[in-house]
Amino acid sequence: MNAGDAVLRDGDVAVFTFDSPPVNALSHPVRAAFLAAIEALDVDPGVRAIVLLGAGRNFIAGADIREFDKPPLEPLLTDVLSRLESCGKPVVAALHGAALGGGAETALACHYRCAAGDLQLGFPEVSLGLLPGAGGTVRLPRLAGWQAAFELMASGKAIGIDPAIELGLVDRRMDGDLRAGAVAWARELAAARAPLRRVSELPVPPSRPAQFEEYLRILPPAARRLPAPPRIVEALAATAMLPVEAALARARALFLECLESTESRALRHLFFAERATAPDPELARAVNQAAVLGAGTMGSGIAISLATGGIPVTLIDAKQDALDAGLARARASIDASERKGRLDAGAAAAARGRLQGSLTLAAAGAVDLVIEAVFENLAVKREVFGRLGQLCRPGAVLATNTSTLDVDSIADASGRPDDVVGMHFFSPANVMRLVEVVRGRGSSREALATAYAVTKRIGKIAIPVGNAFGFVGNRMLYAYGREKELMMLEGAKPEAVDKALQDFGMAMGPNAVGDLAGLDIGFQVRKEWKEKPEDPLFYRVSDRLAELGRFGQKTGRGFYRYDLPGGERTPDPEVAELIRAEAERLKVKQRSIEPGEIVSRCILALINEGARILEEGIAASPADIDVIWCNGYGFPRHRGGPMFYADSLGLAVVVESIRALAGLHGTRYWTPARLLVTLADEGGTLAAWQAARLPRLGE
Ligand code: T1G
To answer: Is 104 a catalytic residue?
Structure first.
């Protein structure tokens, strides 16, 4: 992009268009071209006003995140925006779509702002472990006040045009042709010799010294422990206490501190890993009509995702009451999304219109995609796919939502394995963004590409995985869970296990997750699992609770009690006694176990199993494993996922720690994966190993 191309004259108004696909990120070439244009236009006597516009679907999506791993190049955005603000003629920002991070900062450095109705204005830097480093912390509070500035930056959430106008961040709504409207307004401002409202010259709103301590206290404890959120508060405090130039410099310094942090590198790693393009997009078949088999919790959740994602769907169940319950659940969820403003009235009505039910499998005959979500039993699924194989139209993709069963066996039963794939949704399916797309032995590239495309279309992240027990996520979960189960037999209390892993950053402790999902589910899966380790201690605690009918929340008791007044999750001394008795029966000596041991055994088990999965090609990249665990299992995003975390620990340390555990607990579970040993010996990393390999499977 160069200055010349970006500027078009409309009479005495110059229009500078940011046009660097896909999202007009403010990369170095863009910043340089923009600065050159501003300097030229500012002294051009024929130009009386300037309009900034973004080409494509967005204004500007911020700084170019790809540049953050390289040394910063001049001109820095902070300086470009100070030059922009000092322009001697009116500069109008014409905003549409995303105006995020550096894009929002660019808008605030203009003298006036107008916007189209699809505006999404925000400061998402915190979700990258950063803070607005180019003037946002100096200009935003001057326009919107301290509270709004703190909330927008600490949450990272974008706002629409109405709240942006209410907060004084946008002066005018432009319906119709945004460019024409902005040019006309800019010409008006120039003709009226309207004041050049330089936001950084506005007074800062009055503040109270304790105000910024309060903001720190408002931050959730987990956020307070991260680099970026407290520094956002510090940068705002600097704006309150320092002159503009010093406050800008302080924000820049705090930004650089965040940039170097492992947490920000982890979040940037996930940003791109979650956007990695799936193979063969051009091979995807059209999906205009879908069917979901099984109106249970998963089935209705998947149906909601399809309907709100724009795909007409028939929910099918053999039992009337199950179908009615499933449809009611789906409709209630759409109503709730509308009530909470996640769906506007039009989108909610359209989603309701796309949802219908049927009692007959024949209703799946003409659809383009079937997603099966019936009872997790191989014989049942094979019987269903046998019938689907017969009645579904040629070319329809047949997907199974199994979470552990053999996709090849299910595909064989259909008689058309090339059309069969796994689409493993996570519960609740209408909320969780992750789908493991399972490649069966016979799955065609067209069927896989169709599953990836549909997953992206309904706003979820598709990760390709191979067909093995538990695929990627659940297979690693079994290693992670194995260790927490063993440590409970060795004396760790269920609530202590959960607390240690939550303090590490897991969204929820594994025992609380077990109670939520239902301990009977895992118990059933383990009963059907042929290759289960021949180990009497393996998942012995969960199995014992399930044998006693303690299935978790659904029965009021599991690892915890939920049947006390208030229904709070409450540790149950009875469980501790149950475990003690089981340990005695299995001759396991109990001892006190420190949180550090709980975390390292569970997380190292995760990493080691992840490395084995990479060796076997069940996962295509360490980054895919990180996306699966951060989006499907609540692994802390600021640690980047298990494999990124392994690299941040150092693979030599990981291998050494695993060998130390082997010394204490034997090599049965604690033999370091060959991949880890090789890379550790070479001083390598998983990220470099991946970069040196071929791109994703099938790419
Ligand atoms: N930098 C580089 N690449 C970016 C990018 C960015 N800021 N934003 C998106 N991309 C790429 C993305 O990787 C993908 O690439 C393609 O664009 C489409 O993205 C100085 C420090 C704008 C809402 O955090 O939230 O400014 O896979 O699939 O669903 O203070 O992208 O096609 O090769 O997400 O339509 C702050 C990040 C930066 C916004 C569009 N900005 N972007 O969503 O497309 S830090 C952000 C988004 C900063 C300043 C600070 C979304 C979007 P590829 P996509 P989408």
So the answer is: no
403 close to 375: Cβ distance less than 8 angstroms: no
Half-sphere exposure of 517 (CA within 13 A, CB side): 21
Q: Which of these is catalytic: 102, 122, 135, 357?
A: 102
Contact 22, 148 (CB under 8 A): no
Catalytic hit among 14, 25, 63, 449: 63
pLDDT in tens, 554-585: 999 999 999 888 888 999 999 999 999 999 99
How many residues are given for the chain? Answer: 699
Q: Which atom of ligand 1 is nearest to the CA of 124?
A: 24
Give the contacts of 60 (CB within 8 A, at least 6 positions apart). 18, 23, 24, 25, 26, 54, 98, 99, 100, 102, 103, 106
Q: Does the annotation mark 485 as catalytic?
A: no
578-604 confidence digits (pLDDT tens): 999 999 999 999 999 999 999 999 999
Answer whether 54 contacts ligand 1 (Cβ < 6 A).
no
Q: How far is the CA of 132 from the centre of ligand 1 (A)?
A: 15
Nearest CA to ligand 1 atom 49: 102
String of DSSP letters for 653-694: HHHHHHHHHHHHH-TTT----HHHHHHHHHT--HHHHHHHS-
For residue 180 the two structure tokens come to 């024409």
| Ligand 1 centre distance from Cα of residue 170 (Å) | 22
Three-state SS at 266 = helix
Amino acid code (one letter) for 669: Y
